[in-house]
């Protein structure tokens, strides 16, 4: 066999982009509606369309949008271009789903339990194509949906000479009245360069804001204002609101209201790690509204908000919280049992039997996505206390044939977390592979003889701040996670 050395990046690979995505379907955002589990599913074979899938209590699955008639032969695609990165493109309550349609970015509504129903628009046509974008959706009640709206120059709330889009928190009526009357879309919050995570609570609204040049992992502010209704029943803010947490050097993400009115959120104020915090009286916005860290740990309970709708914890009906904890190259799912106000640092954090090691994790409302193939789990399951897998990264249809010819090597061994610098022995190394197409380096580490529980800590280059100390909690001499 003749070997030839080619310039880097020019060697012919037997693995094509088509081979990587043929038939693939990956779960994305996940939500719980009663006993049903919903998730979005990216489908490269369908032009990158984002489908909505529902899993019933009895285990049956159905695609919610795929077979519904659509005008102009369009394809229903639940995806938003908010901030270009997207996220939070849909929300569901009592079987009624509201979603952003990709091609025009307008919000649509569908009664999923009606087999003859079709999605109907909720928001007006923008002045320019895709000029009004909606994301970070959350249902306020059956009559209204809250969203972050991105108005491009020339659209409502954004002057034609505006140098960049304007962000607003808006309330959209679900009866479709705003299609012909744009004023029915009520602007609740405007002004900051960026707005995120509108979360309605008992007579209150929480949201996150920040301004240029900060990014959401640099510094954000958590705000709370009174939420009421006007004489027509439309949502209104009763005051200007107040900042209850955050600042230029503190990154707050994911505000959530607990069943008792406690405001929960993740913040990195303590020592650089995102940890769970609470405000017992967020409506006061005064001295009694001081944030308190709960179940602190030298690991990440939270993360960088790259897209809208990201979640790292979920308040449960019994007052506990389901959380993801990431540290030392592994991610686990845990339960926090909070004590009374003032005892947050003493609140226990117990590990669930479900471990998600060595892979990114998404946690939304009783669900987690896990190792290797991305997976979604429901907990507790309707038929018992053990977690139940709802969906997984899969291929819809038969897998493609294995690659042949030069360069068609064997499969890479599964990756495993490792420590750097290593405690002893040789440093981790990449495996060098050669083929008829010339030398290449494959980033496939040698299989580890045992599961490692440590990884390189975050660095200043990846987080924008000095790296905090490593996380090494133990219980009875054994790692907790």
From TrEMBL:
Compositional bias of kind Low complexity: 427-441, 449-465
Highest taxon of source: Bacteria
Region (Disordered): 1-20, 401-481
Compositionally skewed regions (Pro residues) per UniProt: 411-426
Signal peptide segment: none
Official protein name in the record: Uncharacterized protein
Naturally occurring in which organism (per UniProt): Iamia majanohamensis
């Amino acid at each position: 066999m003749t070997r030839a050395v080619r310039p880097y990046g020019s060697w012919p690979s037997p693995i094509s982009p088509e081979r990587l995505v043929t038939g693939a379907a990956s779960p994305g955002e996940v939500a719980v509606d009663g006993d049903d589990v919903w998730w979005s599913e990216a489908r490269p074979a369908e032009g990158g369309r984002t489908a909505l899938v529902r899993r019933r209590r009895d285990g049956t699955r159905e695609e919610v949008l795929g077979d519904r008639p659509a005008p102009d032969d369009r394809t229903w695609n639940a995806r938003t271009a908010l901030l270009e990165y997207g996220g939070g493109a849909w929300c569901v309550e009592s079987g009624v789903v509201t979603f952003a349609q990709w091609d025009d970015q307008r919000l649509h509504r569908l009664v999923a339990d009606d087999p003859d129903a079709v999605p109907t628009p909720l928001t007006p046509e923008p002045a320019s194509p895709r000029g009004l974008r909606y994301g970070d959706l959350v249902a306020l009640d059956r009559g209204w949906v809250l969203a972050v709206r991105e108005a491009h120059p020339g659209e409502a709330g954004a002057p034609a000479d505006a140098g960049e889009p304007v962000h607003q928190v808006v309330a959209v009526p679900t009866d479709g009245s705003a299609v012909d009357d744009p004023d029915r879309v009520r602007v609740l919050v405007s002004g900051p360069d960026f707005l995120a995570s509108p979360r309605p609570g008992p007579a209150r609204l929480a949201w996150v804001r920040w301004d240029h040049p900060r990014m959401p992992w640099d510094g954000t502010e958590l705000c709370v204002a009174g939420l009421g209704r006007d004489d027509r029943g439309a949502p209104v803010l009763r005051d200007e609101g107040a900042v209850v947490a955050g600042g230029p050097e503190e990154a707050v993400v994911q505000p959530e209201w607990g069943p008792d009115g406690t405001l929960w959120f993740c913040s990195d104020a303590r020592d650089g790690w995102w940890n769970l915090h609470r405000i017992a009286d967020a409506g006061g916005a005064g001295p009694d509204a001081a944030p308190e860290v709960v179940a602190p740990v030298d690991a990440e309970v939270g993360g960088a908000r790259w897209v809208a709708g990201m979640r790292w914890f979920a308040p449960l009906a019994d007052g506990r919280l389901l959380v993801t904890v990431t540290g030392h190259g592994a991610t686990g799912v845990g339960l926090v049992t909070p004590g009374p106000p003032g005892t947050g640092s003493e609140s226990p954090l117990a590990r669930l039997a479900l471990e998600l090691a060595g892979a990114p994790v998404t946690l939304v409302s009783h669900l987690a996505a896990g190792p290797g193939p991305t997976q979604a789990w429901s907990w507790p399951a309707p038929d018992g206390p053990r977690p139940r897998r709802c969906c997984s990264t899969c291929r819809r249809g038969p897998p493609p044939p294995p690659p042949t010819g030069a360069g068609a090597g064997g499969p890479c061994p599964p990756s495993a977390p490792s420590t750097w610098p290593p405690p002893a022995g040789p440093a981790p190394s990449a495996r060098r592979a050669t083929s008829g197409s010339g030398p290449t380096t494959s980033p496939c580490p040698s299989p580890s003889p045992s599961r490692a529980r440590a990884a390189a800590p975050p660095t200043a280059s990846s987080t924008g701040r000095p790296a905090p100390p490593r996380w090494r909690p133990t219980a009875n001499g054994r790692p907790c996670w």
